[in-house]
Amino acid sequence: xxxxDLILIAAAAGALQEAPKDPxxxxxxxxxxxxxxxxxLERRFRGRIxxxxxxxxxxxxISVTDAGYFEALDALCRAHKGVRYHDVDExxxxxxxxxxxxxxxxxxxxxxxxxxxxxxLSMMRVADRAPEGLSGSVLVVLVLHGPPWIPISDExxxxxxxxxxxxxxADGKDVLGGREERYRGERVSISSMxxxxxxSQAPVRLRDFDSARGLKVLSGKASLRTADVTIQRMKVEExxxxxxGGATLAVDSVxxxxxxxxxxxxxxxxxFKSKTGKGPSLKRALEGRARHDGGKGEWVRFNVRYGGxxxxxxxxxxxxxxxxxxxxxxxxxxxxxxxxxxxDAAFK
Amino acid sequence: xxxxxxxxxxxxxxDISKWIGRLESESIEERDEAxxxxxxxxxxxxxxxxxxxxxxxxxxxxxxIDAIIAAIRKSAELAKVFGPTKRVTIAARGxxxxxxxxxxxxxxxxxxxxxxxxxxSRIDFQVRNVTWWEALDRLARALKSRYEISWESGxxxxxxxxxxxxxxxxxxxxxxxISVAEAKRVDFRTPAGKFEHALVAxxxxxxxxxxxxxxxxxxxxxxDSVVDAKGADALIDPFGLPxxxxxxxxxxxxxxxxxxxxxAPQPLTVSGATDMPFVSETKEIELDLEGDRSRIEVGxxxxxxxxxxxTGAGARLTLRAEAKDDKGEEEREEKVPWIMERLDxxxxxxxxxxxxRRHAGSRVSSRGGKDRCAWEITFSTGIEKPKRVVFRxxxxxxxxxxxxxxxxxxxxxxxx
Lengths: 348, 416
Description:
- In chain A, 8% of the residues lie in helices and 51% in strands.
- Chain A is mainly beta.
- In chain A, strand 17 and strand 18 (263-274) form a beta hairpin.
- By secondary structure, chain B is of the alpha+beta class.
- Chain B is built from eight helices and 23 strands.
- In chain B, the strands form six sheets. A five-stranded antiparallel sheet of chain B has the order 9-14-22-18-19. Chain B has a five-stranded antiparallel sheet with strand order 15-16-17-21-20.
């Protein structure tokens, strides 16, 4: 086996060990142009914000007390009324930034904890056929928004466990625990999941209740195993390998995927092997993105199946295969628990 | 269901003239019964039906007879390809439940698990000359049960569960059962607004001895229209809806769903057609591991042992298949559709050694698509003097196209 060709980049721009400490919460009042206030918020939290084109200038005021990242950001967007960061169509944000686009500000029932935000995205009441009559249930979708400096999404290798501890309808009736009682022969499932960068979503099925009147309480916690990240580089040549924790990441093949006579894409196949049979899985060892020589610095996403030991990175169109590729290697995991308590949640 | 009951209990009266006459009856039940009676006639009845059609006074009767003729022809086609439909006759009076369940034994179904039923108790149950699916449906209902289908060790099993399946229109046609498997109402709320929709799912089950092919077909089950009680189109274009639907079909079935207006006057009528690919012929193929007999042509496909190697870790074989016609890709696809699906899943790839012993292999990967494919198969260590590989090849795939029309479809009541 080839000796690992590892280059730990101590770049001039700063160390690549991406483990920033949480910035403190903020208390301040200010007013002025929305974009300038947002950039000020970006500076206070060191949490990257990207703006979609076409957001018109608008003077707004913000007043927050002991607010975390999302509580402050929400106060700012709420004041503007014409911007939002969830379900933004016109811009595709990266995982470690929040993208603000045009659109009516939507007030999702939410709970803040530290720099995190847990929101109730939707309620879907379903009446369906079932043995011996009708059955009904309500599917609610929760979303956890992580601040840009803490990776929390599945794409970033983060496992999130959701625990809903209490769900009361508008009359205070317990509606938790409907899942076990449901008819399991359902032939069509319906989803309303939307995607967002650096988020984790959880569909939760509750017993039937009047969704027009909503929920009095929805509470619980999200537990996520996040990790700090180092960027590691390896040569793109068949047989090259990289030590990743207790495992080896090897280049299996580099083949051309010819899309046009003068524009080639390259498929680079990798295999991940644990040295001892223990240690992290591929899904947990690497974030699901890479960047390569000639790729303009962009992180290219790749998919790793749960339990999978191999994956493929397809490059941008380029004449020759890249000389090197970089991965975001996850370090030791740490547990973050984000409790949530959402009150009086109703969508009229 | 009532029609089916009348049909199965009625005495045998295959008087074609009588049933043709009843096609013009004022009674819907009589017309339906006559239709079903005539559909069970063989192709020999077609000339008389054609004469009756030509002589019929009204267009509705002509259309009905045309549909009967089409159904008879379709039955004949299916019988030719897949053999006769499994039909069941049970005349049980005070019979043990376990004995009645035993009468539903059929190829491909390993067992019918009675679940919590007391199989030592007795029931009265009669069906005559109904399809296997209809017999199962009616027995489950008589036992106040529904059923689930599972797969274990190469066979299907049926498990009876408490609770009767919700009623809905069902068509039994030869080896197939076409029904509305699900009807839902959905009330979806977000801060952006409120959406109300409904959804119907059509399910087509097939007899367990039919082997479905994974050969991709654009619309295995196609819903062409959903019409409300006033004759208006009730379909909604799903594009732009904030919701997505995902089918979770039972085993032995294909499925499709359609979004419909939640406020459409009921009942609804759902029409469409199937295009289900089934394996209709397989051949056992033997290839030497090297030499002239390591390649063979089967129909329009060329099969080759590409590589074979033995190491300390075991043996590894690469089997390649490609369309042999070199007249262009389009033509090859037409002649050997989806070559990747042709290595028969239901049987093993076997390596035969010098002493004639057979060693089953494990398929580790496949690469390819429409007109060429390579499979990698691994075998255990220590196979002495391996000589040839044996496998089954799907030489024919038959696409079953059945038009359907399900009337009387009702959405569930709105939640209170």
